[in-house]
Each structure stands twice: as structure tokens, then as C-alpha cells.
Design brief:
Layout (H helix, E strand, L loop, with lengths): L1 H31 L4 H13 L7 H15 L16 E3 L12 H13 L4 E7 L6 H21 L7 E7 L10 H7 L1 E7 L1
Parallel strand pairs: 2-3
Antiparallel strand pairs: 1-4, 2-4
Helix pairs in contact: 4-5
């Protein structure tokens, strides 16, 4: 019994560290509704600098992800490690200003469109359920137009981009809590292939 207790106590700090890294990622995804790849790499680099050796599984996973990204040979829109795989831009309540978190994603889509003149995209604007139907249609359109303007400034042709607003009519989440409402305040990139 004493040996078992000592073993559990010796493993406890390592288990706590593993649990902290995982719950932080999950909480961030729940808070923002978006998985952030930068938080994963930040955690991996902080683990390395905090004394965890470079031979650990975390750094092996990072190397595996890099090799997977380097070996991807298909449509860039289908590359899961590319910013092009992120096709949703989220907005604050009653706002159409693009948050800094999403500027790199929009820039990546603009560059892709500029380099692929045969491609086109529909920007679908959405709103949460608060407000009248008419107001939410207009808000969804303002959001989609804000993304459209940024795409155009970054080099995408106006003829490649179509804007449509669904307001509150097509929710991504059906709940009435703030997390669900936050997922519904968005613009989606729908590529026409």
C-alpha cells in the first residue's frame, strides 16, 4: 500500500500539468467558439522553455504536424493546417467590425482568391436571435460587406466575391446562452468550386 501511495504521489504533478494544458484549450474554444492553433503552439513552446525536454511527446507532435503540413499535396482549401481551412469570422454583439484575431484568416483568403482568378466565394452573413428579423438581415449584410471590403483591399477581385445575409435564419448553434449566441454572430466563406 505504501509503494502504491508513493507512486501516485510521484505521478500527481505530471498529471496535473497534463490536465492544465488540456482544460485551457477547451476553455478557450468554449469562450471564443474558435479553436486557436496559436494557443496550442504557445503551450508547446512554454512547456519546452519551462524545463520539459525536447524529446517529449509534445515536441514530437509539433514535428509530426510540420511534416504533415509539408507533405500536403492537394487543394490548399482542404489543407487542415492552412489558414484557408478556417472559413468562419466571428463578431461581437451588434458589431460588424472585424476583430484582429481574424485579419490573418481574411488575408489568407484574399491572397488565395488573388492567385486563383477562376475561384469565387460567397460570404454568408449571420446574426444571433436578438433584434428584429429585418435588423438582423441588415447586420449580417454589414458583417459580410466588412469581410468583402477587407478581401478587396488585400487583392481579391470584386467579381470573385458575392455577399448574402441570412440574419438569424441559419443559426450555427441552437442554444440561447451567450456561447451559442456568439457562434451565430459570424460570416462564413463558402467557396464555389
Amino acid at each position: 500500500m505504501k509503494l502504491w501511495t508513493k507512486t501516485v504521489l510521484a505521478m500527481l504533478p505530471a498529471l496535473m500539468l497534463l490536465g492544465c494544458g488540456t482544460s485551457g484549450e477547451v476553455e478557450e474554444e468554449i469562450d471564443t467558439g474558435v479553436s486557436s492553433s496559436s494557443s496550442t503552439s504557445d503551450q508547446g513552446s512554454s512547456a519546452t522553455t519551462s524545463g520539459v525536454g525536447s524529446g517529449d511527446a509534445a515536441s514530437g507532435e509539433d514535428m509530426g504536424e510540420q511534416q504533415q503540413a509539408d507533405s500536403f499535396s492537394g487543394d490548399p482549401l482542404d489543407d487542415p493546417s492552412s489558414l484557408l481551412a478556417k472559413r468562419v469570422v466571428y463578431f461581437d454583439f451588434d458589431q460588424s467590425d472585424i476583430k484582429s484575431d481574424f485579419r490573418a484568416i481574411i488575408q489568407a483568403h484574399a491572397e488565395y482568391l488573388a492567385n486563383n482568378s477562376n475561384m469565387s466565394v460567397t460570404l454568408e452573413g449571420h446574426a444571433d436571435e436578438r433584434g428584429t428579423r429585418e435588423y438582423n438581415i441588415a447586420l449580417g449584410e454589414r458583417r459580410a460587406n466588412a469581410v468583402h471590403r477587407m478581401l478587396a483591399l488585400q487583392g481579391a477581385s470584386a467579381s470573385q466575391v458575392r455577399v448574402v445575409s441570412y440574419g438569424e435564419e441559419r443559426p450555427a448553434a441552437l442554444g440561447h446562452d451567450e456561447d451559442s449566441l456568439a457562434l451565430n454572430r459570424r460570416v462564413e466563406f463558402i467557396y464555389n468550386r
